[in-house]
Design a protein that fits this description.
Length: about 190
């Protein structure tokens, strides 16, 4: 398989496919603590996640690192639970600083390993071009999903503000994080590597 566009499409499909529920759930966990006005910070978090994802993809695809698939499949939903718990630390506060991007980059290291073995088998020749294309597809898909989720959650915030006197965002951030965290914990319990 070759072609820059093919790998862009694979990356986009990887992040937007409904069968990749763990990735979509992770994006929901990322966006849960943001408002529409915070989109720049959220974009930085998504990019940090992609950088982490890219590093692991490159290491695994080029055979510099070998990671046990059962462990990675277990750790992916654990990262979602971690992101949800981080959201619950200070619900309602505006995100700032490097803590969230650093956390997202660390979680990206784990998520990158989840698709790397499949991707390695598709390469014919040098890996740099396909990896770049794949990651462009991932970033494009993430930005679209995050924008849609942020728009929907911001609309929900406005409705909740009308109903609960301006605490809608905090309530929504908590509810979204708890739901995503419980779902991810259930996924993790079904993927125990031992």
């Amino acid at each position: 398989m070759s072609g820059f566009g093919v790998f862009v499409g694979l990356g986009f499909h990887h992040v937007t496919d409904l069968s990749a529920l763990d990735h979509l759930l992770f994006l929901v966990a990322l966006v849960a603590s943001y408002r529409w006005a915070d989109w720049r910070h959220l974009l930085g978090v998504a990019t940090a996640f992609t950088l982490g994802h890219s590093i692991t993809l490159a290491l695994v695809v080029t055979d510099l690192v070998r990671l046990p698939t059962p462990l990675i499949e277990f750790l992916i939903p654990v990262t979602i639970v971690g992101a949800c718990l981080a959201n619950l630390r200070r619900p309602g506060e505006r995100p700032s600083g490097w803590a969230r991007p650093a956390l997202a980059a660390g979680f990206g290291l784990i998520h990158g390993a989840g698709f790397a073995n499949f991707l390695r088998e598709m390469f014919e020749g040098p890996a740099a071009g396909p990896l770049l294309a794949f990651n462009l597809g991932i970033e494009t898909g993430q930005v679209i999903i995050l924008a849609l989720a942020l728009a929907l959650l911001s609309a929900l915030d406005r409705l909740l503000d009308l109903w609960s006197s301006s605490r809608g965002f905090a309530h929504r951030a908590i509810a979204t994080s708890v739901l995503a965290g419980v779902w991810a914990a259930t996924m993790a319990s079904g993927r125990l590597p031992w």
